[in-house]
Amino acid sequence: MLYIYNTLYTVQLPIVNPTNLVRRHKMPREDKYDLIFKALGDSRRREILDLLKERGRTTGELVEHFKRLDRCTVMQHLSVLEKAELVIVKREGRLRWNYINPLPIKELHDRWIGDYANSAIDLLTRMKREIEGY
After folding, report:
1. Residue 5 pLDDT exceeds 60
2. How far apart are CA 132 and CA 134, in angstroms?
């Protein structure tokens, strides 16, 4: 409880968790995929993900890597990646640590690429059998 003291009286207010005030709607899967494809559509964002694949990095480290971009532009790219849930951000004091979240890419692979890859493997297996005369 939060107590506010006045010279005449004391008011007792409940502390409200701010996360309870924000309504979290589950995003439709197709909208989520659109965000992921948009995020992966830019070569600089893919390069950021490649850097984060090696290890987590601070925003400052990412800005240093992209010498031709200013800090604001790198932050905008990180924002797009974060919105697509491809980057997880953890704040430690003044530092903002960025980590890759591979799960959306795995979901995308399972949904779109996996079936095509399996079909291609089946086709290659059949071709091999026909060529070798099985």
Report:
1. no
2. 6
Say how far apart CA 95 and CA 110 lie, in whole Å: 34
What residue type is assigned to position 87 of the chain?
Answer: V
Residue type, 123: L
With 60 as the cut, is the pLDDT of residue 120 above it?
yes
Question: E strand or H helix at 22, and its extent?
Answer: none
Q: Which 8-state DSSP code applies to residue 104?
A: H
Phi then psi for 23, rounded to 5 degrees?
A: -80, 125
Taking alpha carbons only, the member of 103, 73, 74, 99 closest to residue 88 is 99
Q: What is the mean pLDDT of residues 78-87?
A: 96
Contact criterion met (CB below 8 Å) for 62 and 74: yes
Placement of tokens 């995308």 in the chain = 108
